[in-house]
């Protein structure tokens, strides 16, 4: 399947919204790629309970399928404008302790293979935290990033307080969290929040997914696990164990044999 610039995933049933009027999450699949599209354009994909529930269900449904995960919006010039403030204002202590968004973003972060956020438009609050949960972020010039939670009397408690400083450093994290400072795509790229700038981030993300999908799935999975656990902190034990598993794989043997045969042909 080939996706052209501006193509959007076709909606497939994942559960109706609260009014039963439409799907809030779309899914499009090809070999080795699962594209998830957020489909709440009237609220700029604000994270309502129903949208979070549908997105988490979709992640759980496909989490054992070897594939790159691509999260984007079905609507151009849009990513996630943040939480649904009308819902959020009515929540209390009990809802906070349920950690609904934390569980969703942790599920995205725990995707066994690489994940990519394609960001076209504002990624604010929970929208930025969703992007932070992905391994890679591709953004258009229209993207904007901010953690404005403190201005609403709450915390960026679904990843902003720990994933943001891990990615951009404590200095920039303080500015974005304490001041609610909004940065554009160019600045986000300069500080390492965004990995790539592209006029059409979905097309660029798909291009990256093609490169990623050339790698062995098991090696990708173990590399992601090693990065997540920190090789130095564990004295490289994850790397040693993973390497032992991969050394016994048939794919390793075939790829290395192919390499040796190519090198031999070049020598002649």
Number of domains: 2
Taking pLDDT < 50 over at least 5 consecutive residues as the criterion, the unreliable ranges are 1-20
Report the order of strands and helices: EEHEHHHEEHEEHHEHEHHHH
| β-strand amount | 5-15%
Instruction: Provide the gyration radius in Å.
Output: 20 Å
**Overall form:** elongated
Q: Give, in spatial order, the strands making up the sheet with the most strands.
A: 1-2-3-4-6-9
Q: If you consult CATH, what is the topology of the largest domain?
A: 2-enoyl-CoA Hydratase, Chain A, domain 1
Count of DSSP strands: 9
CATH class category of the largest domain: Alpha Beta
Give the terminus-to-terminus CA distance.
38 Å
Major beta sheet summary: 6 strands, mixed
**What CATH architecture label of the largest domain applies?**
Alpha-Beta Complex
Q: Considering DSSP H and I runs of 4 or more, what fraction of the residues is helical?
A: 40-55%
The overall average pLDDT, rounded, is 87
Which structural category do the helix and sheet elements fall into? Answer: alpha/beta
Number of helices: 12
Under CATH, the homologous superfamily of the largest domain reads 2-enoyl-CoA Hydratase, Chain A, domain 1
Pfam families: ECH_1 (PF00378)
InterPro entries: ClpP/crotonase-like_dom_sf, Enoyl-CoA_hyd/isom_CS, Enoyl-CoA_hydra/iso
Protein name: Enoyl-CoA hydratase/isomerase family protein
Family: Belongs to the enoyl-CoA hydratase/isomerase family.
């Amino acid at each position: 399947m080939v996706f052209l610039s501006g193509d959007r995933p076709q909606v497939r049933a994942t559960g109706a919204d609260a009014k039963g009027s439409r799907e809030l999450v779309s899914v499009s699949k090809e070999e080795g790629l699962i594209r998830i599209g957020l489909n709440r354009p009237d609220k700029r994909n604000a994270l309502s309970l129903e949208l979070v529930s549908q997105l988490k269900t979709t992640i759980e449904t496909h989490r054992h399928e070897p594939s790159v995960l691509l999260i984007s919006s079905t609507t151009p010039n849009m990513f996630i404008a943040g939480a649904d403030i009308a819902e959020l204002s009515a929540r209390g202590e009990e809802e906070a302790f349920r950690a609904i968004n934390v569980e969703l973003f942790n599920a995205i972060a725990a995707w066994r293979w690489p994940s990519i956020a394609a960001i076209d438009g504002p990624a604010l609050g929970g929208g930025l935290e969703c992007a932070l949960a992905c391994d890679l972020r591709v953004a258009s010039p229209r993207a904007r990033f901010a953690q404005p939670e403190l201005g609403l009397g709450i915390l960026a408690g679904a990843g902003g307080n720990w994933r943001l400083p891990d990615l951009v450093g404590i200095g920039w994290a303080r500015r974005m969290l304490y001041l609610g400072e909004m940065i554009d795509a160019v600045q986000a790229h300069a500080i390492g929040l965004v990995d790539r700038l592209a006029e059409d981030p979905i097309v660029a993300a798909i291009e990256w997914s093609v490169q990623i999908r050339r790698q062995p799935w098991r090696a990708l999975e173990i590399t992601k696990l090693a990065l997540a656990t920190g090789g130095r902190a564990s004295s490289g034990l994850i790397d040693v164990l993973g390497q032992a598993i991969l050394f016994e794989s048939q794919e390793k043997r075939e790829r290395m044999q192919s390499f040796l045969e190519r090198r031999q042909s070049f020598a002649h």
